[in-house]
């Protein structure tokens, strides 16, 4: 009944505790002062399960005489939560979760189009588009992560929470001095109180309208159906996890919808500023759907210019700096960096430098496009000159392979890092790029987008956020 759990060298100096275990079935989930996840018949079973989930942190061995070696359990918990978040919020292509993002995004985009068409019919002139984008983005997130959606037309509480999220998103994107100099906080008290009230309202909404119902219905033996389900299982399995941690995580990830709504608004703004961008997007979309169906995530490869427009908006708008701290002495590009040094990735320089981009100030989605040759099969019928049973009317089908040039989006550009890079890279990037694409493309299929006055279209560089109450746009339904 004794096992040794060894850490691999890959994760360096994590603390290792050596604890004695009792022989026979162990009263899990506790060994010594450390808690394990779930109930297990033996320490071996417990650690086998741990090792399955955190395989690259631990290797497991049945030891000879005495004890269990446990890695830093806080790290395990964090890793479990991170893996959960990555599985749901950053799923790989061809996974069920990725496909579900696509279907949810198209569903919500269709709903948005219907709402906007009704709004346009009843309005003479321009409309405030942004609030509609924000509630749609929130519904995309709640629908995908928690299998619940809300009616923005009739649900005032929902609408208010989306507004609060948007105000907070605007605030955190402003870069106040107090962000770097915390001792200034007393000067910002009123401001902080306001933010704090918005946060409380958001938390109350998420608890009462999303979490509590699910807690009540949770079936721990059923397969994990969404992110919320996964979070509640963590809470159920691990008594050391605080309910507030889970609620905070959900709040944080749902809050990501603000970036999608604002980014789509920036994409529409780019089209309103430059009708040529809109024309190119529309001709691409018409070729793909002939106007006969909604656009889904699977259309992304055939709509490279539309996809590239989202990236070009991100290039101009993504955060100018990404702060990190060196966790060990290192050399970066030949410069010594001591452990503890704060290191900033200068995204602004990467995004706007002439060293990397031609005419970086110009809005030009085609900078993200490249031509690729793809081999295609072409069927053609030709006269065989013979008559036989297998060749009706003397025609045979001939398959030839031809090389065709297609446009596609450049991936992995080493100097384009809006979501940063490495171990802490943005978990939400798949959600952002996929949902923004689907919402934007469907809007472009259905409406011509025009500015009321191009001078109104004010946008801060290196900032995804627009104020909650921002400029209106003309949306003209297309035939
Ligand atoms: C325009 C949209 C977004 C941009 C440009 C963006 C960018 C970034 C950047 C630059 C980082 C820092 C990475 C680093 O420290 O190296 C980050 C971290 C993170 N982002 Fe995003 N993000 C966006 C939207 C989202 C969304 C929608 C979510 C969640 C649904 C999200 C979740 C996260 C999380 C959890 C981290 C921390 C990752 C970690 O420390 O392991 N982000 N993001």
UniProtKB/TrEMBL annotation:
Q: Which UniProt keyword terms apply here?
A: Heme, Iron, Metal-binding, Monooxygenase, Oxidoreductase, Signal
Which cofactor does the UniProt annotation name? heme
User: Which of this chain's residues are annotated to bind heme?
Assistant: 426
**Record SUPFAM superfamilies:** Cytochrome P450
List GO molecular-function terms, semicolon-separated.
Answer: heme binding; iron ion binding; monooxygenase activity; oxidoreductase activity, acting on paired donors, with incorporation or reduction of molecular oxygen
InterPro entries in UniProt: Cyt_P450, Cyt_P450_CS, Cyt_P450_E_grp-I, Cyt_P450_sf
**Coiled-coil stretches:** none
Similarity annotation:
Belongs to the cytochrome P450 family.
Can you say what this protein is called?
A: Cytochrome P450
């Amino acid at each position: 009944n004794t096992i040794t759990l060894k850490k691999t060298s890959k994760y360096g100096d994590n603390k290792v505790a050596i604890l004695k275990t009792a022989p026979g079935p162990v009263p899990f989930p506790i060994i010594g002062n450390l808690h394990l996840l779930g109930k297990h018949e033996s320490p071996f079973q417990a650690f086998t399960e741990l090792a399955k989930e955190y395989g690259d942190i631990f290797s497991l061995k049945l030891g000879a005489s005495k004890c269990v070696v446990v890695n830093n359990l806080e790290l395990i918990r964090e890793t479990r939560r991170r893996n959960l978040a990555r599985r749901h919020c950053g799923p790989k292509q061809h996974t069920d979760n990725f496909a579900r993002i696509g279907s949810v995004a198209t569903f919500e985009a269709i709903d948005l189009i219907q709402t906007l068409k009704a709004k346009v019919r009843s309005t003479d002139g321009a409309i405030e588009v942004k609030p509609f984008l924000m509630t749609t983005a929130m519904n995309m997130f709640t629908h995908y992560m928690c299998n619940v959606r809300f009616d923005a037309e009739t649900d005032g509480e929902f609408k208010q929470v989306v507004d609060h999220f948007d105000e907070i998103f605007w605030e955190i994107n402003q870069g106040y001095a107090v962000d770097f100099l915390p001792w200034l906080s007393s000067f910002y008290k009123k401001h902080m109180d306001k933010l704090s009230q918005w946060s409380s309202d958001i938390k109350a909404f998420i608890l009462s309208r999303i979490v509590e119902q699910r807690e009540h219905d949770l079936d721990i033996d059923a397969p994990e159906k969404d992110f919320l389900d996964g979070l509640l299982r963590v809470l159920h399995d691990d008594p050391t996890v605080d309910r507030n941690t889970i609620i905070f995580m959900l709040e944080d990830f749902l809050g990501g919808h603000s970036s999608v709504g604002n980014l789509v608004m920036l994409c529409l703004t780019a089209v309103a500023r430059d009708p040529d961008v809109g024309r190119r997007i529309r001709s691409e979309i018409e070729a793909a759907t002939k106007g006969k169906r909604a656009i889904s995530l699977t259309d992304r490869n055939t709509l490279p210019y539309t996809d590239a427009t989202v990236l070009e908006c991100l290039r101009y708008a993504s955060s100018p700096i990404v702060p990190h701290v060196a966790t060990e002495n290192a050399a970066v590009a030949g410069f010594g960096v001591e452990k503890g040094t704060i290191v900033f990735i200068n995204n602004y320089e990467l995004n706007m430098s002439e060293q990397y981009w031609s005419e970086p100030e110009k809005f030009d989605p085609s900078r993200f496009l490249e031509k690729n040759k793809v081999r295609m099969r072409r069927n053609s019928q030709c006269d065989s000159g013979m008559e036989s049973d297998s060749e009706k009317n003397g025609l045979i089908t001939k398959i030839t392979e031809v090389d065709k040039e297609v446009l596609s989006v450049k991936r992995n550009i080493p100097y384009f890092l809006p979501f940063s890079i490495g171990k802490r890279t943005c978990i939400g990037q798949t959600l952002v790029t996929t949902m923004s694409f689907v919402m934007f493309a469907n809007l472009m299929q259905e409406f011509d987008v025009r500015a009321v006055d191009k001078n109104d279209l004010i946008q801060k560089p290196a900032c995804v956020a627009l104020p909650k109450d921002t400029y209106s746009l003309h949306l003209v339904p297309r035939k």
